[in-house]
Amino acid sequence: MPIHDQGYRHYAGDRALHGRGWWVIARHGMVAPLRERRFLALLLFAWSPFAVHAVQLYLGATLVRSAFFVATEETFHTFLSQQRLFVFFITIYVGAGLIASDRQSNALQVYLSKPITRHDYIGGKLLTLAMFLAAVTWIPAMLLLLLQILFSGSLDFVLDHPRLVPAITLAATLQVVLAAVTMLALSSLSRSRRFAAMLYAGLVIFAGLLDTVLEGVTRNTAWMLISPQNTLLFIIRAIFDGPPDNVALLGSAVAALVALLIACVLILERRVRAVDVVA
Amino acid sequence: MSATRRMLEITLGDMLWGRRAVFMAIAAGVPVLLAVVLRVALASGSATVVVNGSRLSTETMFGTAITLLYLRFIVPALGVYYGTSMIADEVEDKTITYLFVRPMRRGAIVLGKYLAYLVCVLAAVLPSAALVFFIMVPFANMGPLVDTFVRDLEQLAVGIAAYGALFVLAGVTFKRPLVGGLIFVFGWEPIASALPGYVGQLTVAHYLQAGTAGMLGLVLASAAAVLLAMRTIEHREYVLEQ
Amino acid sequence: MIIATERLSKWYGQVSGLNDVTVSVPEGITGLLGPNGAGKSTFMKLVTGQLRPSTGTVRVFGEPIWGNPAQYHKLGFCPEQDAFYDHMTGREWLEALAELHGMNADTAHAAATRALEAVDLLDAGDRKIGGYSKGMRQRVKLAQAIAHDPALLILDEPLSGMDPLMRRRTIRLIKEWARAGKTVVVSSHILHEIEAMTSNILLMHNGRIVAEGDVHQIRALIDEHPHRVWIRAQDPHAVARLLLGGDDVSSVKFAEEGVIVETAKPDAFYTRLTALAASGEAGAIEEVTSPDDNLQAVFSYLVKQ
Amino acid sequence: MNEPAVVLDGVSVTYGRHEALRNVTAELPTGAIGLLGPNGAGKSTLIKALLGLLPPSSGRMRVLGYDVRESPLAIRARVGYMPESDAHMRGMTAVSFVAYCGELAGLPSSNAMQRAHEVLFYVGLGEARYRNVETYSTGMKQRIKLAQALVHDPDLLFLDEPTNGMDPKGRDEMLALVRDIATMKAITLILSSHLLPDVEFACDHVLVLNRGAVAAQGPIATLKGTSGRVFELRVKGGNASFLDAIRAEGLGCDGETTGVLRVYVPEQRPTQALFQIAAQHGVQVRHLRASVPSLEDVFARALGEPLDAARGKEV
Fold first, then answer.
1. Which of C204, C219, C234 is at the close of a domain?
2. Is the CB of B179 less than 8 angstroms away from the CB of A214?
3. 3-state helix, strand, coil in chain C (%, to 5)
4. At C56, is the pLDDT very low, low, confident or very high (cuts 50, 70, 90)?
5. I need a labelling partner for D132 at 20 to 30 A (CA). Which of B205, C4, C175, D178 fits?
6. Longest dimension (CA), chain A
7. Which residue would you say has higher pLDDT here, A2 or D224?
């Protein structure tokens, strides 16, 4: 027919099966922050410790044979725990608005009217934050390991420390999962990005402050459990340096983190509900 | 100024509800909790506080608690949170329109809200500080410390008034005052007090510690700030964007 | 005149809300119309003293409104935004605002009760506004505008979000207020609602007043669109043949079971038409109407986007 | 496809104690269906249930041939939903937002982007498609909500107050779009709106809910019934004697105060009598029209409002 209908045309292309929703959400979630210059600066800044350590490894492996520069398991341990500062900032920058902005702009209705499930939504949002956090913890750590191998020209560093790769992976994963799940739960509690950010900052800083004061006063390290941050550091130290003398404390530390994660998952389950969609 | 009194009543009702009340309860409750825990720990003798050699007496600890916890953290935080949100929140929520079309000077809105803030925060912080005092300081040697305790309370009261007034003014003038306020209180004030020369004087905390003359100056400055805020809200146009 | 503006303009940033408007609003109900961005809400903010005129003056009851809070005893404003203190109950909110008018506790209570009754929210008065449906929030917003019994009511989209029955009741309410002597300025996008309330309109576009006054008079003045009459008759051709004879008919067009006639002299034409129908010369004439003598037509003719 | 788009069989939904839907049984054909009812009648609950977001406490539902309980995802893949309130995503341009919605609905990313452009042009946002959604006017926000509901080419479209907050020109264009979709493009659409003239313009079938139960359903034409012998009359030069003359002729007449007279002409009397009286009194008949019952009358009758209130627009 010579004159084609300029109006609405039906879609003839193919349609993917469901179940991919979480990946779509994660991928799109990463695009927005990467477009902001401030965030790129933050990411770059988060990689500066990597550069410092890389130089240290270079010197250790070549010119100066002194013990100070030679890489040991401890260098990776300190690197990961130093990165917690950037984990904190990136978690707030990317994570605070993940659900809060959707709640404020009523986007939840749009998401859940699509063929995706609530768990696709939560999973996708978690993955967005987790990928950024991994980019400043696990990835630089493994790159450092690779550099160490390249500079030393042999695999024996890895062979001497068989537990190093699993330790780095486990520690980084703990850091990423804890920060991502907690931030996402707090983000789902409010409609304002700023309030969620303040909640997270308050939780981390205030708990840390309270813990140092109480531990300082009562000399009893059990107070560490009230601060997720310090509990995590304790566990990471245990991962790298082997089980501590006070094994009971390690057990309760792990229990505390697991409890926190469960609480966050429950919050997410309750706050991201289909029924209060379609206001 | 009956309009101010009415605004005070409305805001009081508004303050004791929801997020604001929770925030205030935490701010007043946590130090008391802390004091109780410390007292129990010390009483059971399980832990002695040893700082550079000498056993710290609870009174000095109370002194540090007042300055560190209250003056540097709780009072400024409450001042920033309530001061900036008083007007800025209503403008952002667009509920300010209902108040602007009432037969009263707009300044009464600011004054009413500021007085409500003063009443609520004083009623929360001062008793909390007193409680911490009674918990921490053993009854025996409470006598000589009473006047220093009263001076501490004065410091707190003036601090509450000053931070409140400063951030009411900020709240009326700027669009997003909260972030700036937080940076001023937790970024600028600690740094400035460490820097040499006059820089230290560009903070509220400095005048709080500068004896009665400093505090008097602060009270006058607070009054001036509130009056300026009242004038600003009357002359400024609030275009509530769509 | 209740409201009078004199060369009133308002711009903020590069946005020109209103430019050079001289208009006066009479008593009774006035419909304020115009496409989005026509300057309606800027006009209302100026009239309710929320914005200061950039140039020119606006007088309400003969006095300026900006910085003159005493005027608000006589003025009630129902804003368009959906903004409330969700934790307060409807009654608490109305009483608090009434007290700001200088009422003591019990007069405020009485005023709140009257207002709640007027908007049919008496039973929901003690529930939190946060739990109100959109229609109820709209009605409690109306209630706060009339609680202090003002002489002038400025209502911005008062019916948005209401269901059809509530719309009808609210239109009736507004007309009752007008009959009781209040002056009401209603802004709305739903033209048939304005038509149901009043035929006195204030049409704005691009920050200027396009037309002011009675719709039908305005329609008659739009000469580039001559008066159009649609006649349904058994024998449209006979009617057309007879009507063509007169000089007051400028064009004739046949439409479904009827004929559409354009005329430049409506009085002469209608008299002839009534006579023709009465005589039955051209068969039975069942219906006579002018399809574009209504607000929709006036709006589209005058507001050519 | 003549099989009804939506079938509801004894559907009940309860929130705690509140019974939002009470044993709703209805069959909605393909085409354009108006979903009406006062606030709180259960309209949005019905939409939520049909989208599979809210499990009903009893009854079965079939949408586009799928059972809602068994395959909610398959339904939501072929259904578009345009929410009533503002719904967008912070910091996204129109194109990226609509493409994102396409991908969420199952389209591969490249197709989704191409579809986004096409749909945005269709809803009239062609030039503004690279702008950030937050900068959009109310009318444009309504259009982009329609675009995100259309991007994956649904077979069923839920429109919740599509013309809310739009100015007259925008409303006409949106209604034209809605009608074009329903009639030309064989997409069934369920339009929930408080503006009955809009529903009357776009839809041919209605389902009226009241307090969670079906108050009326069926084609609009049949629900309206025949037009009674009531005429709206507007004259120029009319006076008291003219009105008395009409009443003297045995034709009931009221509504003098409102400018539009309502004249009750018995069945057998032709309207010519009215013209004759007018001619005798030198009165011009400016407007004489049989008062056809509107959808508002159907709505009022379904909810048990007194008929005269429904009839008399200016009671």
1. C219
2. no
3. 35, 30, 35
4. very high
5. D178
6. 88
7. D224
Q: Which residues of C touch D270 (CB under 8 A)?
A: 284
Assigned token pair, C94: 């109305």
The answer to whether residues C246 and C177 belong to one domain is: no
Widest CA span in chain B:
66
Mean pLDDT of chain D: 85
- Kindly indicate the confidence band of residue C95, based on its pLDDT and cuts at 50, 70 and 90: very high
Q: Do A114 and D104 touch (CB under 8 A)?
A: yes
C196 domain residue, yes or no: yes
Is residue C49 domain-shared with residue C110, that is, in the same domain? yes
For residues C135 and D112, what is the distance between their CA atoms, to the nearest angstrom?
Answer: 37
- Work out how many domains chain A is built from and give that number: 1
Within 13 Å, how many C-alpha atoms sit on residue A12's CB side?
1
- How many domains, chain C? 2
Tell me whether strands D18-28 and D6-15 are parallel, antiparallel or unpaired. antiparallel
CB contact under 8 A, A217 and B178: no
Residue range(s) defining the domain that contains residue C265? 223-291
Q: Which two tokens stand for residue D67?
A: 């059972």
Would the pLDDT of C299 be above 50?
Answer: yes
User: What pLDDT score was predicted for residue D8?
Assistant: 92
What are the backbone dihedrals phi and psi of residue A132, each rounded to the nearest 5 degrees, phi first?
Answer: -65, -40
Please give the structure tokens belonging to residue A137: 């913890």
* Same domain membership, residue C204 and residue C231: no
In a domain? residue A137:
yes
- The reply to whether C289 touches chain D by the CB within 8 Å rule is yes
Q: Label residue C256 exposed, middle or buried (CB < 10 Å: 0-12, 13-18, 19+).
A: exposed
pLDDT digits (tens, 9 = 90+) for C171-182: 989 999 999 999
> Is residue A207 predicted with pLDDT exceeding 70?
yes
D261 vs C contacts (CB less than 8 Å): none
C 150-179 residues with CB below 8 A of D?
Answer: 157, 160-168, 172, 175
Q: Looking at beta carbons, which residues of chain A come within 8 Å of B70?
A: none
Which of D172, D190, D220 is at the close of a domain? D220
User: Domain check: are C77 and C111 in the same one?
Assistant: yes
Task: Please tell me the predicted confidence (pLDDT) of residue A278.
Answer: 43
Nearest to A18 among D73, D108, D118 (CB): D73
- What average pLDDT does range D218-243 have in this prediction? 80
Instruction: Render pLDDT for A156-197 as a digit per residue (tens, 0 to 9).
Output: 888 888 888 899 999 999 999 999 999 999 999 988 888 899
- CB–CB contact A106 D87 (8 Å): yes
Residue D109 has what pLDDT?
A: 86
* Per-residue pLDDT band at A64 (split at 50, 70, 90): low
Look at residue C255 and give its three-state secondary structure. strand
User: 3-state class of C132 per DSSP?
Assistant: coil
Measured between CA atoms, the residue of chain A closest to residue D107 is A15
Calpha distance D313→C168 (Å, rounded): 8
Last residue of a domain, one of D188, D220, D252: D220
Nearest 5°: the CA angle A178, A73, A61 is 130
Residue D283 with chain C: CB contacts under 8 Å: 274
Q: Which of C198, C219, C240 is the last residue of a domain?
A: C219
Q: Is the whole model's pTM more than 0.80, yes or no?
A: no
CA distance linking residue B139 with residue B151, whole number of Å: 19
